[in-house]
Amino acid sequence: MGRISSISVFGFLANWSPYFLLAIIFISVIYFLGVTKWRYSIPGNRPVKRSEVILFIVAMLLIYLLKGGPIDLLSHIVFSFHMLQMACLYLLVVPMLYFAIPSYFIDYFITLPVIRSVFSSISRPILALILFNGLFSIYHLPVVLDFLKTNALLHAVFTVILFITAFAMWFPVFNRTPLPVKQISGLQKMLYIFMIGVLLTPSCGLIIFAQHPMYHTYTDPEAWVNAMSLCVPSGTLNNVLASSGISGPQYFTNMSSLEDQQTGGVIMKVLQEIFFAIMLFYVFFNWKQSEGNDEEATTLKSLERRQQEQAYFNQFR
Q: How far apart (Å, rounded) are the C-alpha atoms in residues 246 and 240?
């Protein structure tokens, strides 16, 4: 892969999206107000942990780099970066939010009257699996991706929907709520993560083993220019195309369109395996720890009951 530095020709606005940065700053301000000044009006509140603050800042920086920084621009040019963006955003950043946002704050938000009924439905394990993975597969159908890449509003809406369904999908695994919701066991969580990987495999396999490039927005110069208009101001884009001789995405990479597409599928699959391995280790460790605590609690209760019985019979000696 070469000439990636050439994306600087598209200018500061396209590379660093200051408007998206303002949105990230606004969300961060809401977070810090919510976990400090506003938390006293939320039931079950507690002081925010330093680890939560650090993780939240890291998550916001990642979201900005993935959707507002050069990676987002590259995701419209090189398919490999598109898949890197998807893997990190939905399989890394979304789960991270469950450790960055205090559980009482999440509980307060998802139990708001307007949100409660919808979220309680889409976060049910089976439906959550089907929703996110189904939408992910639909998104990567060539006709859908090519269309969304040339429509800014619909692309933004679909991205938000994917983010929400990803958050709902990870709720059964990483929620720490004390609310009376049905929790799945450690073994079920491990099976659940495995099933996410299984359901992601067909779309990755289709991309990896395709015998020809599938997406016009990464191969056809005219479709590519239309897609680039989503992230590059039209005046800047026209000037760059007129003055630089750039005729399509092939200018920015030494890989062929098919090699780029296959590399993207491999990146998605490899990162998925890495992230899921970490998740499985975390779930397994917590499961064994909770099982040990349960056994200890059961033993203590048995001893207390035995002592009570012994004290009762001692009265008649």
A: 8
